[in-house]
Design goal:
Its main location: mitochondrion. The chain is α+β, with helices and mostly antiparallel strands. 21% of the residues lie in helices and 10% in strands. The strands form two sheets. Strands 5-2-1-6 form a four-stranded mixed sheet, covered by helices on one side. Strands 3-4 form a two-stranded antiparallel sheet.
């Protein structure tokens, strides 16, 4: 038995104004704010236009038996009851922005693999091992997983610490404690940079193939 749920398209009140009359400052402010919010939402959207709520509105009422969708969706029994993880992708550790960290992703856990006896390659029989499903909202991802009969383990993102003004690129080469010592004591901090071999050349002359002498260098030594 399949239960049918009625869909209703939500009413979206678009802000419109007539250009025949002089525009009011508050109207322009509201219009520009709405355009800005729509542009930001469109930039962070990972779904195609036909899969968004504007074209395909969500269910108004929650489904009583969401797992029944898996029976008619074409998904076989081999994925029913599988465990998936839901998380937000983290920012790349390189010098990149947070543009690709606003959505949620669903991934399946990795099952046991084996080594191919002929070539030594790793092999497996799990067709959804590399499957990645992206969603704009956490609730949509959980609802989709429940309709497929999957068990969801949610990993909420940790709150990022604000390092603005606390760290600098120079800390990769100069420790923070040394930098603070320089700011506090100035030239008196030169003792931190003293080294027994400081100021000496670290160039090492290479030996000849048989080890019976040094390789002649360019310049005056090459003529000797």
């Amino acid at each position: 038995m399949i239960r049918a749920v009625a869909r209703t398209r939500p009413s979206t009140g678009k802000l419109c104004r007539s250009f025949s009359a002089p525009a009011q400052p508050e109207d322009d402010t509201a219009l520009m704010q709405q355009i800005k919010e729509e542009m930001v939402a469109r930039r962070h959207n990972v779904l195609p236009p036909h899969a968004t709520d504007d074209q395909n509105p969500s269910f108004v009422e929650p489904m009583l038996h969401p797992e029944e969708c898996a029976l008619v969706s074409g998904v076989g029994e081999w994925t029913k009851g599988r465990k998936v993880i839901l998380y937000k992708p983290t920012r790349n550790q390189m010098q990149s922005t947070r543009a690709f960290t606003h959505h949620w992703e669903i991934r399946f856990g990795t099952r046991a693999n084996w080594q191919n006896p002929l070539m030594g390659w790793n092999a497996g029989n799990d067709p959804v091992a590399d499957l990645v499903a992206k969603f704009n909202k956490k609730e949509d991802a959980i609802s989709f997983a429940h309709r497929q009969g999957w068990t969801v383990e949610v990993f909420d993102p940790k709150e990022e610490e604000d390092f603005d003004g606390k760290i600098a690129y120079s800390h990769n080469f100069l420790p923070l404690d040394v930098e603070n010592h320089l700011k506090k004591y100035g030239k008196k901090s030169s003792v931190l940079f003293k080294h027994p071999t400081g100021g000496h050349s670290h160039w090492v002359k290479t030996l000849k193939y048989h080890g019976d002498g040094e390789v002649a260098q360019h310049g005056g030594e090459a003529k000797q």
